[in-house]
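Bit of a strange request maybe. I'm writing a small parser for structure token strings and I need a real example to test against, not something I typed by hand. Could someone generate the tokens for this chain?
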Amino acid sequence: MELTGRAAAGGDEAGVGDGGCGAAGWVGDIGTPEKAKRVVWTREYSRPARRRSMDKGRGGVRSRAASVQEGTRSMTSTAWIDPAASVGAGCRIGHFAVLEAGVELGPGCEIGHHAVLHGGTVLGAGCRVADHAVIGKLPARAALSAVTQEKPLPPARLGDGVIVGAHAVIYAGSRIGARAMVADFAFLREEVVVGELTIVGKGVTIENKSSIGARCKLETNAYICALSTIADGCFVAPEVCFTNDNFVGRTKERFAHHRGPTLELGARIGANATILPGLTIGADALVAAGSVVTRDVPAGRIVKGAPAADWRAVPDNQLLKNQP
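Reply from user aminoacidic:
Good idea to test on real output. This should exercise your parser:
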């Protein structure tokens, strides 16, 4: 695709009809050679000019110099793309989507309506971001925040093929591995790491400075508190609750002991279980549904009850090494 540096001042050359937009910009062809569209890339333009553009079936995008590669298939007139954003070939961008400065989209990405990608966010090839999702949001520290810090954060980064559901929020400083899924209404705070092929289910919350391994499943509305660690191949059922503060919000001493649970390789947690702060659930261990775990769980054991007590060994056919 050829891009010109001419001012988008008016006439058909600017793609907005007589009168133009009166703002500096550049013009490019969007789409395949058979169905190319002339698009004006401007930061702002007048309402009459926009109406004329839409009447002629030409999409104006509110950006002056965004880097758009050949083969980009669909840009809506209502999307806002910063001049310093980069859009790969074959991308689709929905109505009222926002791409701030420094955003990078790999080839073949799909961005839904009203999605917001904050400055510097990087998406690998073939990512799909659904309507109203927000990626790269900066945290706001409340006066009494215990873990949140005001400090520079790196941009959010999503690997190839990541799927982000509608209304999901992923903060700056997070890294999502290739082909992972972050489902509708999920909430990932800053400095969260999610491994490849992991599923973060609907409404799951992962608080800041937590790490989730590869090929994990976190089911609907699970709560992963700050400073938690989940190794590869773990399963967390719906409504599970992790905790990280044995002092329950009182005394300054609590800050020295702030730590979430640790799940080792292949550990599983049943629905509605609660895990107290700083505990370790051993490799391939299983916590039964509804349990309250108050002490470490040995590898390969099943615990149940409130407080959870040892019951028996996990059957061999359920061990992670014996799964297909």
